[in-house]
Design a protein that fits this description.
By secondary structure, this protein is an alpha+beta fold. About 65% of the residues lie in helices and about 10% in strands. It has a 5-stranded mixed β-sheet. It is rod-shaped. The N terminus is likely disordered.
């Protein structure tokens, strides 16, 4: 199944050594039968069988796709020549094997994918039978009986091609669904791992304070201040995970301990990204923001991820009693605008 449904296959398994060996074996048995029946009594008969052998070899050319036009033309030409040459030197028989075998070879071009060559070859071979039959004054029943096997072979070739296409479509659909399911499972697992890692980080941040409170430590101003800083840090991780960077997080915590109000807005997954950013705060940007907010000793700081398409990555608003300044920065830390 895997060989037949491989991407791009149109060969129906005919471009393999087993297929070649099988066809040559059938040809050899037919040749032996011809010798026994006395149908190979002349050089012309030998040429008929050799043409059929050449068509077998060309039809089973290695590959998992349709034959090249030249190879397909060789198959059709050799098979038609074999049948026509036989009809030219023998009275129209009923069930003469080389005619049937030539029709098999042409019909097998259909599942191989060479529909045009098969159509032309079938038309020439089937057209030659009644022409030769009428020239030999053969009866209509004789002509019809000779054409039965070639016609059935062509029908079988068409059915084979249709069924193969359905098998390939179903297999590809199954593989696509399996790939989608595997991708969804992988995404779910990665999300669960990130969720667990985030909970572990939050537990590390909040755990010591919660244990201190549970142990009966009084809620004095110092502890309340530590709780406020920890709560803000956890809120930042939940609400703005894309702005999380160790350097920036440390700088923000330092300013909060100094009494400065720091607010994070949005997620940097919506940043512009036009300057090479991947939607997260990098080292250069984090260092630049940390340097900007380090001198702030009062007022408030608002760090906002800029939505995609706004020409920047992060904006920083510094609000002090005596002045207000807004800076727009690119993902590499360059200050684009300052006002």
């Amino acid at each position: 199944m895997a060989d037949l449904t491989a991407g791009g296959t149109g060969g129906a398994g005919l471009g393999t050594r087993p297929a070649r060996y099988a066809l040559i074996t059938v040809w050899a048995l037919g040749a032996v039968n011809g010798v026994i029946a006395g149908w190979m009594g002349s050089r012309t008969d030998l040429v008929v069988y050799l043409l059929a052998l050449a068509a077998c070899v060309a039809l089973t050319g290695r590959g998992d796709d349709m034959l090249r036009p030249a190879a397909a033309a060789l198959v059709a030409g050799a098979a038609v020549s074999s049948g026509v040459l036989l009809l030219a030197v023998h009275p129209l028989p009923i069930g003469f094997w080389p005619i049937d075998f030539a029709s098999y070879l042409i019909a097998l071009l259909i599942p191989r994918g060479n529909i045009r060559a098969a159509t032309i070859g079938a038309a020439l071979l089937l057209g030659a039978v009644p022409i030769v039959g009428l020239a030999q004054s053969a009866g209509a029943d004789t002509i019809a009986k000779v054409m039965v096997v070639p016609v059935l072979a062509l029908i079988a070739g068409v059915v084979w091609r249709v069924i193969l296409r359905q098998i390939v479509m179903r297999e590809r659909t199954h593989r696509s669904r399996a790939a989608i399911a595997a991708r969804d499972i992988r995404i779910d697992r990665e999300a669960a791992e990130r969720y667990r890692a985030e909970l572990d980080t939050i537990r590390e941040q909040a755990g010591p304070l919660l244990r201190a409170i549970a142990a009966g430590e009084p809620l004095d101003p110092a502890l309340r201040h530590r709780l406020m800083i920890t709560e803000a840090a956890i809120r930042d991780r939940i609400r703005s995970p894309g702005l999380a960077h160790p350097t920036l997080t440390a700088a923000i915590a330092d300013r909060r301990r100094a009494g400065v109000r720091v607010l994070l807005l949005g997620d940097s997954s919506g940043t512009d990204g036009s300057d090479g950013s991947d939607g997260t705060v990098g080292d250069e940007l984090a260092a630049t923001i940390g340097g900007l907010i380090a001198p702030v000793i009062d007022g408030s700081i608002t760090i906002r991820a800029v939505p995609r398409g706004r020409g920047g990555a992060v904006s920083v608003l510094l609000s002090a009693p005596d002045r207000t300044e807004r800076l727009l920065m690119a993902a590499d830390g360059t200050v684009i605008d300052r006002r």
